[in-house]
From TrEMBL:
Organism of this sequence: Desulfonema ishimotonii
Protein's name in the database: Peptide ABC transporter substrate-binding protein
InterPro entries reported for this sequence: ABC_Transporter_SBP (IPR050902), ABC_transptr_periplasmic_BD (IPR002491)
Pfam families: Peripla_BP_2
PROSITE patterns found in the cross-reference section: FE_B12_PBP
Length: 333
C-alpha cells in the first residue's frame, strides 16, 4: 500500500501516517518527491534548527552529522561537522541514509544535492514559513524518523505553553502595553514582517509592534523600514529590542551611539534590550524561552522567575530520554 502526501508550503497535515510496512511519499519544499519505507536511522542535518528539533524528538545516535553553526543542545556540538559549501564526498563517505537541508541550500547548491542523490542518499528540503507551518514541519521530522508520537507531544506542550503566556499577557491593561521596535539588522535599519517568528514571540508576550507597516524584503521575514521612519517614531517607541547573532552583530553601545538614536524615547529611558537571535528566529521549542525573555524585558513584574519555573514545567516531560534531558537543561537556568 502506498500513501502520498503533498506538502504545499508545509501546510498539509502529516501526522497519523503509519509507516508499518507501507511506503509513504510526500513532496518537500523544493518540489521533490520523497519516499519513506521505514524511519531513517543515519541522519546528517545541514540546518541547525533541524538539529535542535531532532534532539527534541529524542534522537541522538541517529544523528551522525551536523552543521558548523550548532549552538544547542550541547550534544550537537560533539557530533561530526559537515558543510554544504564544500565538496559532498565527506558526506557520502559517512554513509547517511538521510540528509536534511532547507530550500536555500537546494537553490544555491543544486550540484551538491544532486551528487548526494546520485550516491543513493535521500535528501529532504524542509523549512516552515510561519508558526502554523512549524507544527507541520515538526510532524514531518517525526514521520521521517519514526517519532510521530513524540512530535505530537512536542506540539501539545508548545501550544500549552503558548496558552499560559497569552493568559499572562491578557492581564496587562491596554494602557500598560509597550510599543516596541524590534531590530533585525542594524546596519540596514531593517525589522521583521508581522508574520515572522520574532514578532510572534513579541506579540505573544504582550508587546505591540510599532513597525507593523514594514514591508517584506524578497518575501522573507526581514522587512525594510529605514532610519528616517524609526526616528519619526522616536516619541512613541517604549522599548527598543534588537536580536543579536550572526545576522545582526551589534551591542547596546553601538545602538546608543547611532546618530539620532539618542532622541528615541526607549534609548533615553534605558529601555534598550538585546535578545539572542537563536531564541527568536529558529522554528524550535526554544521560541517559548524567547517569548518569556522578551516578556521579562517588557513586564518584569509579570514575567518573573516563578512564572518561568511554571512554564518550564509545562515544557518538561518526566519521561524524557537522555538526549531530551540534555536538551531541556535550558529550562533549569
Amino acid at each position: 500500500m502506498r500513501k502520498h502526501i503533498v506538502i504545499m508550503g508545509m501546510t498539509i497535515l502529516l501526522w497519523g501516517l503509519p509507516l508499518m510496512g507501507h511506503a509513504a511519499t510526500f513532496t518537500d519544499r523544493s518540489g521533490h518527491e520523497i519516499e519513506i519505507r521505514s524511519p531513517f536511522k543515519r541522519i546528517i542535518s545541514l540546518y541547525a534548527a533541524h538539529t535542535e528539533n531532532l534532539f527534541a524528538l529524542g534522537l541522538d545516535e541517529e544523528i551522525i552529522g551536523v552543521t558548523p553553526y550548532e549552538v544547542w543542545p550541547p550534544e550537537a556540538l560533539k557530533k561530526p561537522v559537515f558543510n554544504y559549501r564544500k565538496a559532498p564526498e565527506k558526506i557520502i563517505g559517512a554513509r547517511p541514509d538521510l540528509v536534511l537541508i532547507r530550500p536555500m541550500i537546494a537553490r544555491a547548491y543544486p550540484s551538491f544535492t544532486e551528487k548526494l542523490k546520485q550516491a543513493g542518499i535521500t535528501v529532504v528540503s524542509v523549512q516552515p514559513v510561519g508558526i502554523d507551518d512549524m507544527y507541520q514541519y515538526w510532524r514531518t521530522l517525526g514521520i521521517l524518523t519514526g517519532k510521530e508520537e513524540e512530535a505530537e507531544k512536542m506540539i501539545f506542550r508548545f501550544k500549552k505553553a503558548i496558552r499560559t503566556i497569552r493568559i499572562l499577557s491578557h492581564t496587562i491593561p491596554a494602557t500598560r502595553r509597550k510599543r516596541v521596535y524590534f531590530e533585525a539588522i542594524h546596519k540596514k535599519m531593517k525589522t521583521f514582517t508581522p508574520a515572522s517568528m520574532q514578532l510572534f514571540t513579541l506579540t505573544m508576550a504582550g508587546g505591540i509592534n510599532i513597525a507593523n507597516d514594514a514591508t517584506s524584503v524578497r518575501k522573507s521575514n526581514i522587512a525594510s523600514y529605514g532610519k528616517e521612519r524609526i526616528l519619526s517614531l522616536s516619541d512613541e517607541i517604549d522599548v527598543y529590542l534588537a536580536q543579536k547573532g550572526k545576522m545582526n552583530r551589534i551591542s547596546p553601545d553601538l545602538i546608543r551611539q547611532e546618530p539620532g538614536f539618542q532622541k528615541i524615547k526607549a534609548i533615553k529611558n534605558g529601555q534598550l534590550f538585546i535578545i539572542d537571535e537563536h531564541l527568536v528566529s529558529r522554528p524550535t521549542p526554544r521560541l517559548i524561552r524567547g517569548a518569556v525573555d522578551i516578556g521579562h524585558c517588557l513586564y518584569p513584574d509579570i514575567y518573573t522567575r516563578e512564572i518561568w519555573q511554571g512554564i518550564k514545567r509545562i515544557m518538561d516531560n518526566s519521561r524524557l530520554s537522555v538526549a531530551q534531558s540534555a536538551y531541556h537543561k535550558i529550562y533549569q537556568e
